[in-house]
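Module 6 notes. Inverse folding takes a fixed backbone as the condition and produces residue identities as the prediction. Think of it as a translation problem where the source language is geometry and the target language is the twenty amino acids. Below is one complete input and output pair. Work through it position by position during the lab.
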């Protein structure tokens, strides 16, 4: 179809929103569309989005400190500057702080909502049932959502950033994570994401696991690029001790997942979906979030209730030499692009 201008609006803390949106942006750009990706994640300034997305995707980073009035003004500027044919909104149909609500009914363009599980309190308080009616299509990427039964809702497989051909092989992934080629021990990776505090807490968990496991398994602390990894940045006492794992800058983590035998982390969208598509055994905490319900996403065998249980479950997994399930991979972001193109054709045909 004729190339269109896409504005992908992926606001929210942590890394889930912009990583999921990046998977969509890459696939849209490969189909010839002109894509602008908007994020206000505190992680975004340090993550090499442009290197992964390529020159066809323009990344617009907003300050996470913007209030509702400033956000509304920024949206007006974006709409004027990009003049999109399509607006894709990740998760929050009213915008992160309600800034989109007064604009959506009057926007004459294709409007698509990336519709995920949301806290029922938020859904009721802000009348999300009414807000979703402003969208031509609701895409449900790999997990249930409040309005997944809506007439304009379509389910897809989970959206991931990398294609299967971009995953490193097991040996190369383990070497990238600092494991010698002749080391056949199971590798444990502790994922740090969510916010700066949780990244540092992952370092503590990695240190405890390495102490417990000793020579049985190497432990790696995977952390996204950010100021907490700077040698000059202040650290909490004992976050990194002598002999404990040093943080490894890893993004996107999916590239090295084939080298990981046990993944330890939290129940965020990307961590969980990447573990499942690669067949990597996962044990995770359900972190508290205002909108996201991580405990709902995690399966009983994946969920640890406390950090102490997390460590014990991970140690037990290593001792059992867990079997990796053969990966069964279909990237829903590719199907989503085709579904969105149909919306564009319908809007242009009116």
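Target side of the pair, the amino acids:
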């Amino acid at each position: 179809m004729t190339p269109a201008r896409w504005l992908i609006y992926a606001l929210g803390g942590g890394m889930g929103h912009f990583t999921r949106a990046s998977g969509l942006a890459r696939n849209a750009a490969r189909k010839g569309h002109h894509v602008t990706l908007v994020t206000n994640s505190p992680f975004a300034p340090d993550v090499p989005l442009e290197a992964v997305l390529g020159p066809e995707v323009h990344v617009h980073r907003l300050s996470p400190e913007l209030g509702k009035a400033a956000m509304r003004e920024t949206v007006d500027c974006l709409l004027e500057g990009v003049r999109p044919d399509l607006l894709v909104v990740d998760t929050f149909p009213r915008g992160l702080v309600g800034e989109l609500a007064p604009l959506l009914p009057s926007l004459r363009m294709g409007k698509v909502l990336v519709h995920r599980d949301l806290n029922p309190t938020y859904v009721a308080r802000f009348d999300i049932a009414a807000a979703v009616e402003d969208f031509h299509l609701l895409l449900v990427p790999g997990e249930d959502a409040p309005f997944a039964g809506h007439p304009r809702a379509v389910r897809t497989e989970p959206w991931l950033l990398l294609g299967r051909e971009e995953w490193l092989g097991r040996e190369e992934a383990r070497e990238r994570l600092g494991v010698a080629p002749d080391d056949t021990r199971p590798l444990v990776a502790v994922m740090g994401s969510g916010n700066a505090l949780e990244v540092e807490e992952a370092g503590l968990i990695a240190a405890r696991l390495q102490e417990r496991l000793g020579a049985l398994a190497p432990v790696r602390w995977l952390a996204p690029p950010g100021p907490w990894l700077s040698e000059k940045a202040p650290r909490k006492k004992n976050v990194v001790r002598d002999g404990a794992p040093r943080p490894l800058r890893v993004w996107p983590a999916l590239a090295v997942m084939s080298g990981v035998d046990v993944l330890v982390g939290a129940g965020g969208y990307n961590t969980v979906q990447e573990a499942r598509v690669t067949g990597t055994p996962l044990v995770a905490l359900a972190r508290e979030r205002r909108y996201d319900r991580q405990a709902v996403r995690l399966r009983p065998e994946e969920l640890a209730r406390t950090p102490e249980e997390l460590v014990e479950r991970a140690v037990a997994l290593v001792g059992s030499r867990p079997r990796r399930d053969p990966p069964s991979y279909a990237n829903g972001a590719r199907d989503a692009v085709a579904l969105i193109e149909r919306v564009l054709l319908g809007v242009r045909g009116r």
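Reference fact for the lab report: Residues 196-213 form the longest helix (18 residues).
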